[in-house]
Amino acid sequence: MSRKVCTDLKAFHDILQKSTNIVVLTGAGVSAESGIPTFRGSGGFWRTYQATDMATPGAFKRDPSLVWEFYHYRREVVMAASPNMAHNALAEAERKLTSEGRKFNIITQNVDGLHVRAGSHNVLEIHGSLMKTRCVKCRDVRDNHDSPICPALKDRGSPKVEAPLPRIPVEELPRCKVNACNGLLRPHVVWFGEGLDGAVLKKAASLLEACDLCLVVGTSSVVYPAAAFAPSVAERGVPVAEFNVDDTPTIHDLLSFYFQGPCGTTLPQALA
Ligand code: BJW
Ligand code: ZN
């Protein structure tokens, strides 16, 4: 039998007041109002491709030039974007609640770094970062904010181009600068079929096990393992509150609260 979902802000405020350990799980929807495309739905296309089709090791193996164009485009969008009211409300809530001795942690599936740029400190990025690279040869991971990331990608990656552009030769794609390695770099993100970092997963599990309130913001809750986080919390009887523009069938039945609407509006109200 499904629970009755509450949409009453006052009732949520009462629970929030009593909570001492809050975990917020975020997805692409939290950055939508910063102009960053989500993965699914009408915005989830890059050229004629579904964005998720670019996020696989197979796509990178087949066509590293195309996948690097996609990631170069997204890096540039993120660098030009700013945190929105939802990121800011979460950063402010962390400041306020931690100053009262309470715990407040964000587990994000996003790779855009906007939570940290908004001033949040307790952020676990479970799918990696657009602003990090990893060498496929020596595995070196490092921060990279270069724009463009390499000369050959300058003016490439536009989502509007439908005619195939000539592939960039692999030796002109981003290359490792560690000693004489020169291996091909890839974005340090987690693609489909790849495991998440073990230490990161362990940290996420311990945060989820300890929380007494869970907020789920702007995620379709279809990608595992993150899709299992809210169910695991609800199973312990802990309230889960969703903030989303749409109904999310995969978690709807386990919710205690549901606030429909753009989270740049609903979150600041809920966390005020
Ligand atoms: C708003 C809004 C506004 C809009 N306000 N809301 C168990 C069962 C079945 C399959 C699997 C399973 N375990 C593992 C798998 C395989 C796979 C998986 O989950 N597949 C499913 C799709 C079926 N998982 C994996 O492969 C993971 N690896 C793994 O588990 O390893 C072990 C293993 C492997 C294989 C088999 C079994 C075990 C890795 C997953 C990596 C996901 N990577 C990506 C790309 C990251 C890099 C990059 O960014 O390029 O992560 S895919 C993409 O999806 C990205 C996102 O983080 C992730 C989730 O998307 P998200 O954030 O939910 O975005 P959207 O677009 O889906 O939703 C946006 C939401 O916002 C919507 O609800 C809107 O309504 C809402 N919204 N505007 C509020 N203003
Ligand atoms: Zn290397």
From TrEMBL:
It catalyses: N(6)-glutaryl-L-lysyl-[protein] + NAD(+) + H2O = 2''-O-glutaryl-ADP-D-ribose + nicotinamide + L-lysyl-[protein]; N(6)-malonyl-L-lysyl-[protein] + NAD(+) + H2O = 2''-O-malonyl-ADP-D-ribose + nicotinamide + L-lysyl-[protein]; N(6)-succinyl-L-lysyl-[protein] + NAD(+) + H2O = 2''-O-succinyl-ADP-D-ribose + nicotinamide + L-lysyl-[protein]. GO terms for molecular function: histone deacetylase activity, NAD-dependent; NAD+ binding; protein-malonyllysine demalonylase activity; protein-succinyllysine desuccinylase activity; zinc ion binding. SUPFAM superfamilies: DHS-like NAD/FAD-binding domain. Its EC number is 2.3.1.-. Gene3D superfamilies: SIR2/SIRT2 'Small Domain (3.30.1600.10), TPP-binding domain (3.40.50.1220). InterPro entries: DHS-like_NAD/FAD-binding_dom, NAD-dep_sirtuin_deacylases, Sirtuin, Sirtuin_cat_small_dom_sf, Sirtuin_class_III, Ssirtuin_cat_dom. Its main location: mitochondrion. Transmembrane segments: none annotated. GO terms for cellular component: mitochondrion; nucleus. NAD(+) binds at residues 27-46, 109-112, 218-220, 244-246, 263. Residues 2-272 form the Deacetylase sirtuin-type domain. Substrate binds at residues 71, 74. Its cofactor is Zn(2+). Keywords: Metal-binding, Mitochondrion, NAD, Transferase, Zinc. CDD domains: SIRT5_Af1_CobB. Binds 1 zinc ion per subunit. Zn(2+) binds at residues 135, 138, 176, 181. The active site is at 127 (proton acceptor). It is found in: Mitochondrion. Signal peptide: none annotated. HAMAP family: Sirtuin_ClassIII (MF_01121). In contrast to class I sirtuins, class III sirtuins have only weak deacetylase activity. Difference in substrate specificity is probably due to a larger hydrophobic pocket with 2 residues (Tyr-71 and Arg-74) that bind to malonylated and succinylated substrates and define the specificity. Belongs to the sirtuin family. Class III subfamily. NAD-dependent lysine demalonylase, desuccinylase and deglutarylase that specifically removes malonyl, succinyl and glutaryl groups on target proteins. Has weak NAD-dependent protein deacetylase activity; however this activity may not be physiologically relevant in vivo. This is NAD-dependent protein deacylase. It comes from Megalurothrips usitatus (bean blossom thrips).
